[in-house]
């Protein structure tokens, strides 16, 4: 969490290392010369927008938490979920007497006042049970009061906040009175909390705190824990929880924060991989919530608005069930100028009306919306409950695109120009959707604007995006959409090998005509590649690449040629062959959060010696590298790694092995490679 300046707790800086990017300067009217190609692929379905998608944090130090003015502003921005009682304060807060020893509790911020605000806004609550200084019994009593005594129907409850920050890994900002501060102890107590709380109301969902892959202390093992925080917590508490809760503050300059949104697909993929690997049977039921996000630079100005829209869209499209901004009100921080606008360094969506300590600078009047508030309002216009995200992409890193398909056949496209200095003209190509020739409904938020402007204007295929802007286009389809079949159900994969997988899905419901066939597509960026088609509900895909990640969708086509919406996405990864002439064992040890000691052991499974060898693999991301190595010659070009022998280990005898080591580095989620080739032959994994 990030607290008001006057009540700041010790917080560790979780800044991801990245290449230096240019700083932010005032926007100009110039436009980039070459148009940006945007592709929107309605065949490549992603997650569906839930009714908890757009969230914010409330805090008990904010005396305006429950006011009608604040609540109505949040309702107008489309807020669907509110978190309480406020980040790290949750681990010192006692709900029965509304106290937080060691912290400040403002008047009119008790639980009932919060719930009245939730009801007025038409939202749902997420409540943080006190882990640091509380007990399972206290949490169970809170559930009883909320859902039995008062009938609030509070469904989502998290056990604690950022509890890895209790000193177990060296940095301590989170209250934790337990003598044992290990991840193992937290997990054991999560089980006790979940049992006690669900004994009162078995319909609630209980969440456990994890850390964002690629962020401290991801990958670090401390004390007697069997592994890093996420592994330990999931291994013990996984069978008892319903969701996991993570935070993300990417840090850096405005440009760096906006660039680091590219980390999110791999971070959520790794998080799901950890859940699947460690949380026990039926781990797919466990959801993901991102309940704190913000930036270090441009918090009240346009960079935060762009970041909010990009991150909310990216996370929701990957199936996260709620994304929540830190915070509603927070207080003035370090004042600066960003892109020609005064930035108050305030984590809040709305002004607190506060002044700097010396009184030299004051924020706008209380509840004046800051730029990220307008970014949240843009999300309300763009992604509505029940919409299905579809794949969108661009060929320019400073322009991002997201899209959703609506039940009435409309398509909405969100375009984000992250360039502070230049407008960008975009040309938009659509696959699986033909827009009407009518002008789309266009909503735009420009740098320094006090609100969003909306008009019926322009073209569906070309648009000029102002510098540092958000634009949403809502498009009608060119033809009728009635009578098409329903989307096929959620696909699953079985029999996954290094080269093949069998995809199975629940049948679609016919519309105006019988279903003729199902088509299976792979998402390749924003382009769909058809893998095959069948009249049945199962298809075996061959010719896959070892060690690769695939996201596929299934569409139904009827005898009249009408095509359904795409199924929900299925993501799976191929591995290495079960048997091969060689085996490679890849190891990581002593991870320190952005690097580790790596090793490769190569075994010759053949009957003849190998004289002279070249080992190759490709890193799954662009932020992984070999920093240095030993016992071999190491070379990296782009994401490709090439390892060759020294004079001492040039020959590998039949049945023998050679080993080499390296220092690995990463500045984002560390997705490890799973396929290795020796002299062009794909090896088995050791």
From TrEMBL:
Record domain CBM2: where: 575-686
GO MF annotations in UniProt: hydrolase activity, hydrolyzing O-glycosyl compounds; polysaccharide binding
Keywords recorded for this protein, A-Z: Carbohydrate metabolism, Glycosidase, Hydrolase, Polysaccharide degradation, Signal
Pfam families associated with the record: CBM_2 (PF00553), fn3 (PF00041)
Annotated ranges, domain Fibronectin type-III: 487-577
Signal sequence bounds: 1-31
Gene Ontology process terms (BP): polysaccharide catabolic process
SUPFAM superfamilies tied to this protein: (Trans)glycosidases (SSF51445), Carbohydrate-binding domain (SSF49384), Fibronectin type III (SSF49265), Glycosyl hydrolase domain (SSF51011)
PROSITE patterns: CBM2 (PS51173), FN3 (PS50853)
Protein name: Cellulose binding domain-containing protein
Organism of provenance: Micromonospora profundi
């Amino acid at each position: 969490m990030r607290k008001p300046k006057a009540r700041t707790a010790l917080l560790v800086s979780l800044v991801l290392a990245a290449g230096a990017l240019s700083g932010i300067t005032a926007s100009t009217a110039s436009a980039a010369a070459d148009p940006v190609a945007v592709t929107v692929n309605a065949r490549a379905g992603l997650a569906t927008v839930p009714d908890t998608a757009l969230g914010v944090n409330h805090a008990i130090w904010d005396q305006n938490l429950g006011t009608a003015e604040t609540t109505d502003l949040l309702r107008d921005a489309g807020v669907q979920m509110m978190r309480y009682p406020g980040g790290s304060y949750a681990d010192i807060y006692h709900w029965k007497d509304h106290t937080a020893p060691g912290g400040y509790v403002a008047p009119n911020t008790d639980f009932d006042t919060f719930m009245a605000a939730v009801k007025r806004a038409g939202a749902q609550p997420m409540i943080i049970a006190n882990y640091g200084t509380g007990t399972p019994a206290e949490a169970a009593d809170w559930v009883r009061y909320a859902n039995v005594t008062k009938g609030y129907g509070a469904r989502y409850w998290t056990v604690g906040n950022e509890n890895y920050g209790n000193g177990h890994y060296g940095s301590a900002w989170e209250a934790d009175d337990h003598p044992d501060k290990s991840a193992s102890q937290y997990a054991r107590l999560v089980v006790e909390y979940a049992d006690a709380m669900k004994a009162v109301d078995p319909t609630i969902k209980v969440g456990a705190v994890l850390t964002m892959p690629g962020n401290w202390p991801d990958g670090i093992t401390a004390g007697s824990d069997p592994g890093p925080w996420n592994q330990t917590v999931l291994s013990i508490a996984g069978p008892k929880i319903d969701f996991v809760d993570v935070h993300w503050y990417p840090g850096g300059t405005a440009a760096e924060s906006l660039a680091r949104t590219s980390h999110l697909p791999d971070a959520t993929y790794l998080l799901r991989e950890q859940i699947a690997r460690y949380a026990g049977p039926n781990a797919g039921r466990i959801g993901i919530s991102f309940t704190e996000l913000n930036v270090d630079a441009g918090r009240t100005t346009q960079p935060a608005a762009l970041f909010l829209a990009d991150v909310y869209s990216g996370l929701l499209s990957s199936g996260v069930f709620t994304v929540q901004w830190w915070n509603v009100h927070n207080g003035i921080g370090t004042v600066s100028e960003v892109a020609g606008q005064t930035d108050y360094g305030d984590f809040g969506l709305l002004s607190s009306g506060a002044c700097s300590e010396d009184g030299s600078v004051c924020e706008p009047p209380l509840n004046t919306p800051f730029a990220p508030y307008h970014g949240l309002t843009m999300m309300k216009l763009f992604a509505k409950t029940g919409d299905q995200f579809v794949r969108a992409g661009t060929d320019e890193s400073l322009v991002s695109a997201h899209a959703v398909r609506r039940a009435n056949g409309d398509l909405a496209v969100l375009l984000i120009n992250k360039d502070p200095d230049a407008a960008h003209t975009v040309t938009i190509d659509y696959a699986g959707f033909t827009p009407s020739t009518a002008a789309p409904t266009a909503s735009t938020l420009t740098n320094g604007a006090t609100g969003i402007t909306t008009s019926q204007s322009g073209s569906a295929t070309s648009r000029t995006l102002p510098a540092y802007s958000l634009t949403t286009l809502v498009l009608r389809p060119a033809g009728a959409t009635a009578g098409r079949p329903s989307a096929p159900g959620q696909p699953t994969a079985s029999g996954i090998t290094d080269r093949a997988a069998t995809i199975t899905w629940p049948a679609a419901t016919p519309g105006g005509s019988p279903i003729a066939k199902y088509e299976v597509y792979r998402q390749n960026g924003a382009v769909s590649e058809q893998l095959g088609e069948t009249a049945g509900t199962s298809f075996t895909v061959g010719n896959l690449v070892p060690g690769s990640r695939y996201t596929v969708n299934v569409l139904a086509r009827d005898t009249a040629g009408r095509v359904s919406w795409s199924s929900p996405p299925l993501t799976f990864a191929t591995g290495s062959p079960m048997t091969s002439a060689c085996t490679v064992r890849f190891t990581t040890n002593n991870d320190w959060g952005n690097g580790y000691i790596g090793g490769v052991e190569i075994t010759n499974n053949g009957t003849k010696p190998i004289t002279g060898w070249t080992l190759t693999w490709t890193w799954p991301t662009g932020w992984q590298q070999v920093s240095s190595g030993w016992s071999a010659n190491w070379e990296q070009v782009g994401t490709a790694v090439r390892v060759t022998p020294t004079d001492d280990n040039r020959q590998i005898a039949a049945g023998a092995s050679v080993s080499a080591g390296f220092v690995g580095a990463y500045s984002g989620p560390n997705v490890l490679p799973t396929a290795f080739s020796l002299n062009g032959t794909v090896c088995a994994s050791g």
